[in-house]
Amino acid sequence: MDRGEQLMEVLSELINKKEALDRLTWRTVARDLNPTELRCVEYIGRRAGVNATRLAEAFSMTTGAASKLTKRLLARDLVTRYQKLENRKEVYFRLSPQGEELFAVLAEIRAKLNRRDEAIFSDLDEGVYDAILRFARTYCNHLDSLARRRAYPRGDVQEY
After folding, report:
1. Are the C-beta atoms of 100 and 92 separated by less than 8 Å?
2. How far apart are CA 112 and CA 118, in angstroms?
3. How far is it, in rounded angstroms, from Cα 85 to Cα 96?
4. Looking at residue 157, what is its pLDDT?
5. Strand pairing partners for 92?
6. Which end of the chain is more exposed for a tag (fewer CB within 10 A), N or C?
7. Could you give phi then psi for residue 68, rounded to 5 degrees?
8. Which H helix or E strand runs over 46?
9. Please, what's the largest Cα pairwise distance for the chain?
10. Distances in Å between the alpha carbon of 152 and those of 61, 68, 106, 148, 155?
11. Where are the domains of the chain?
12. Alpha carbons 25 and 158: distance in angstroms, whole number
C-alpha cells in the first residue's frame, strides 16, 4: 500500500468512526429525521439565501435530490419557502419557528461534540495542525478541480 492509500484509509476510518459516534448523539434529538435532514436544518440555520442549487452543491447531490430533501423538511414544518422581490422565479428556504427550535438543540449538540474532541485538538502542535489543515485544503481543492472537469468535460473522454 502506498503512502496515499495508507493515509486515505486512515482518514476514511477516522471520518466513519466520528460520523457513527455523532449519529448516536443526533438520534437522541430527532429519531424521525435522518442525518442529511439534520445537516440541512443546520445548514439553512447558519446561512441566508439558501436555495435548492446551493443545497445541492453543499451536500454533493443533484438539485432534484435537494428539492426532495426540502420537501420533506417543508412537510415536517421545519423550513418555509420564500421568494425575493427582485427574483420571483427562485425559491429560497429559511427555518420555521419549529426549525429554529431544532436548530438551537442541534447547536447545543454540536458544542457538546466539539467539547468531546477538544482535548485532541488543543494538544495538537501548531505546526502539525497547520500542516494537516493545509493538506486537507489542498486535497479538497484537487477533488473540486477533478469534479469540475468531470461535470464539464472538454471532450468525449474524461481523463484525470
Report:
1. no
2. 10
3. 20
4. 44
5. 51, 82
6. C
7. -60, -40
8. helix 35-46
9. 56
10. 16, 25, 37, 6, 9
11. 3-151
12. 41
What's phi and psi for 84, nearest 5 deg? -85, 145
Question: What pLDDT, in 10s, does the model give residues 114-132?
Answer: 999 999 999 999 999 999 9
pLDDT at 160: 46
Query: Which residues are CB-neighbours of 94 under 8 A, at least 6 positions away?
Result: 44, 48, 50, 79, 80, 82
Extract the C-alpha cell encoding 12: 476514511
In the chain, which residues have pLDDT < 50?
Answer: 155-158, 160
Q: Name 109's Cβ contacts closer than 8 Å, sequence gap at least 6.
A: 25, 26, 29
Q: Cα–Cα distance between 51 and 44 in angstroms, integer?
A: 9
Fold exhibited by the domain 3-151: Arc Repressor Mutant, subunit A (1.10.10)
Secondary structure letter of residue 59 according to DSSP: T
In the structure grid, which three cell numbers stand for residue 119, read together? 482535548
